Amino acid sequence: MAWIYLLVAGILEIVWAFAMKQSHGFTRLVPTVVMLVSMVGSFGLLALSMRVLPLGTAYMIWTGIGAVGAFLVGVTLLGEAINPMRIAAALLVVSGLVLMKLSASS
């Protein structure tokens, strides 16, 4: 169950990062509220997952899901630049996440 909590926490991290961008510096109410709610949910689920998972594993996977997810949202929804170097960087993060998951004892 800890891995499911961690996955959902990572997805909520993507949501709050996107909502933060859409809030335009906290000047738009709805995206700001979405950001705050998803941030609290993300941190709460991360904390629950850390009851079982080691700190380093949980935190690395949480931030990695958020980083790669935010990259993908930026490219697909916000029209951010995509090039071979950015793709390689994202793939390196994903490979690190896979290795961390494979090395986890829980």
UniProtKB/TrEMBL annotation:
<dbReference type="InterPro" id="IPR045324">
    <property type="entry name" value="Small_multidrug_res"/>
</dbReference>
<feature type="transmembrane region" description="Helical">
    <location>
        <begin position="29"/>
        <end position="48"/>
    </location>
</feature>
<keyword id="KW-0813">Transport</keyword>
<keyword id="KW-1133">Transmembrane helix</keyword>
<keyword id="KW-1003">Cell membrane</keyword>
<feature type="transmembrane region" description="Helical">
    <location>
        <begin position="85"/>
        <end position="104"/>
    </location>
</feature>
<dbReference type="Pfam" id="PF00893">
    <property type="entry name" value="Multi_Drug_Res"/>
</dbReference>
<dbReference type="InterPro" id="IPR000390">
    <property type="entry name" value="Small_drug/metabolite_transptr"/>
</dbReference>
<comment type="similarity">
    <text>Belongs to the drug/metabolite transporter (DMT) superfamily. Small multidrug resistance (SMR) (TC 2.A.7.1) family. Gdx/SugE subfamily.</text>
</comment>
<dbReference type="InterPro" id="IPR037185">
    <property type="entry name" value="EmrE-like"/>
</dbReference>
<keyword id="KW-0472">Membrane</keyword>
<protein>
    <recommendedName>
        <fullName>Guanidinium exporter</fullName>
    </recommendedName>
</protein>
<feature type="transmembrane region" description="Helical">
    <location>
        <begin position="60"/>
        <end position="79"/>
    </location>
</feature>
<keyword id="KW-0812">Transmembrane</keyword>
